[in-house]
Amino acid sequence: MSSDGVWDVLALALGVFIVGGTAGSLVRTTVMPRSVASRLSVFVGRRVVYRTVLRVSHLFESYESKDRVLSYGAPLALLSLLVTWLLLFLFGYALILWSVVDESFGQAVRESGSSLFTLGFAGHEHPLGTAVDFMAAFTGLIVIALQIAYLPVLYQAFNRRETLVTMLQSRAGAPAWGPEILARAQMVDMVDELRSLYAEWERWIAEVMESHTTYTVLIWFRSPHALRSWVLALLAVLDSAALHSAFSPSSVPSEARLVLRMGFTCLRNIADVLGIPYDPDPFPDDPIQLTYDEFAGGVKRLNEMGFPMERTPEEAWPHFKGWRVNYEKIAYVLGDSVVAPPGPWSGPRNHLAGLTIVPQRPPNRRPDEREEHRPKAKRAGWHA
After folding, report:
1. What is the pLDDT of residues 29-48, one digit of tens each?
2. CA 50 to mean position of chain CA atoms
3. Is position 345 within any domain?
4. Largest CA distance in the chain
């Protein structure tokens, strides 16, 4: 075989490999209804685009500015992945054309682009070249059609996720905090309504588990409000259920145990997709990162509102730890990965070092009380 023949075979093999690999990435990302990771989407979306956006966010000091920059991460990852697919198909089909048709590589690229984008200004009379042109044109249509169908599914899942996250702000503050859910429920005499809250969040968690393991880019989509995050909302609901179970074992609704089970199952499924290590069967007395002093700070908030407790903080602490050990590590890693607002009980943020945001809550003002001595609430400036 001549040297030209060897190059033709190599170009054909490389072109088929690129087209086949790109098609596999496209199918795994947009079509398959299960958590099958695409290395290409992980590399382009997470390792290139999102890390670049993260580095750009370091140029800003205030948390609000960082949040605005980070909100572009997931949308840019989607667009970059679409461009990457098209460029790889363009290059792959150009290599195939170059190997089967007697023309320069530049002409092959021109013909591949004309066919892929269905422009039709370049073609070839060679039978094999014509077949490749048809394949490229079909591929271009399929890529665009799948993207048109893919984006609405993503944003519908995002909107469903954010509805309950937004509703939780009135119960858990912003950023969301587990003790705040119980404290506010007690303040407005709605502790009995926590049963329905846990049941609703159990269904929400099941839907998030399905959507976020299938379309992992949703994990990095940020909430419209700078202080809201689906990770913190989930963590707050789980912490409230764990606290409720630890302090009031005889009156806690059974839905609290169900939402806890569904919660750490969801987090473990997401951890499997992202490659986050965790202990699948921790012991109740294994150490957790939350300290007893931090726990005591949350208990103080419950005491201020008069939340009923059957156990002392010292007695409840090991029971609370026994629940939290199932989900704390994964929630902390996820919160750090998506740069969630650094609320209490949510772990450190490597990219927001030294910053903690206290949950904002409206003052409880009443018309029959004189409150001239109380200053008006001001919007916080969240600076690192």
Report:
1. 887 766 666 788 888 888 89
2. 12
3. no
4. 97
Whether residue 192 sits in one domain with residue 240? yes
Angle at 158 between CA 33 and CA 140, to 5 degrees: 55
Cβ-based neighbour number of residue 165 at 10 Å: 23
pLDDT in tens, 96-134: 988 888 778 888 888 888 888 877 666 666 677 788 888
Instruction: Give domain status of residue 158, yes or no.
Output: no
The total of structural domains in the chain comes to 2
| Cα→Cα distances 53→172, 206, 222, Å | 29, 30, 13
Phi-psi bin for 103: left (phi > 0), alpha (psi -120 to 50), beta? beta
Q: Tell me, yes or no, whether 23 lies in a domain.
A: yes
Find out whether 254 and 199 touch, Cβ atoms under 8 Å: no
Pair (108, 213) in one structural domain: no
pLDDT of 2 > 80? The answer is no
Distance CA 68, CA 347 (A): 22
Q: Which run of H or E residues covers position 178?
A: helix 178-187
Look at the chain and count its residues: 384
| d(C-alpha 135, C-alpha 280), whole Å | 46
Which residues, in sequence order, are CB contacts of 277 under 8 Å at separation 6+? 271
The residue with greater pLDDT, 7 or 170, is 170
* Residues 11 and 93 occupy one common structural domain: yes
List the one residue out of 304, 349, 341, 64 whose CA is nearest residue 176. Answer: 341
Residue type, 74: A
Which of 237, 231, 228 has the alpha carbon at shortest distance from 219? Answer: 231
pTM for the whole structure: 0.88
pLDDT-based confidence at 380, cuts 50/70/90? Answer: very low
CA distance 174 to 166: 10
Which pair of tokens denotes residue 364? 């409880």
